[in-house]
Amino acid sequence: MNQLLLQNIDAVFAVEDFTALGAIQSIKAADKKIPGDIAIVGFANEAFGEYITLSLSTVNQQTVHMGEEEWSKIPSPKLVLKPELICRQSSTGKKHTK
């Protein structure tokens, strides 16, 4: 993240929410504003993301639904779960989710 901050970036899409949390720490340490200077979005919709200060925008990969399908008695032969973007304060400055 520190290397990216030297490149004057506008946004970060982290590979998962815990990585996004680390990026947030680095961005704050560099005295950059989230989302004013740099927006950040994670991936996985971990439970903590909604509760940190600036709540974390994330992509919900439908983990719970995946688990439910795996444990169902009659699994679908092919199931495509569409990821869902959850916009929170780290990328929009306003808290709203679908």
Strand content: 15-25%
When the domains are counted, the total is 1
Largest sheet: 4 strands, mixed
The CATH class name reads: Alpha Beta
What name does the CATH topology carry? Rossmann fold
Superfamily (CATH H level) name: Response regulator
The outline comes out as elongated
| Strand line-up across the major sheet | 1-2-3-4
User: How many strand units?
Assistant: 4
Percent of residues in helices: 25-40%
Counting DSSP H or I runs of 4 or more residues, the number of helices is 4
CATH architecture level-2 label? 3-Layer(aba) Sandwich
Find the structural class using helix and strand composition. alpha/beta
Helix/strand order, N-terminal first: HEHEEHEH
Low-pLDDT regions = 94-98
Radius of gyration: 16 Å
The rounded distance between the terminal residues' Cα atoms is 29 Å
Report on this model:
The structure is a single chain. With 98 residues, this protein is of the alpha/beta class. The chain has one domain: Rossmann fold, CATH 3.40.50. It is built from four helices and four strands, in the order αβαββαβα. A four-stranded mixed sheet has the order 1-2-3-4. Helix 2 links the parallel strand 1 and strand 2. The two termini are 29 Å apart. The relative contact order is 0.19. Residues 94-98 have low confidence and may be disordered.
Gist of the model:
This protein has about 100 residues and is of the alpha/beta class. It contains 4 helices and 4 strands; from the N terminus they run αβαββαβα.
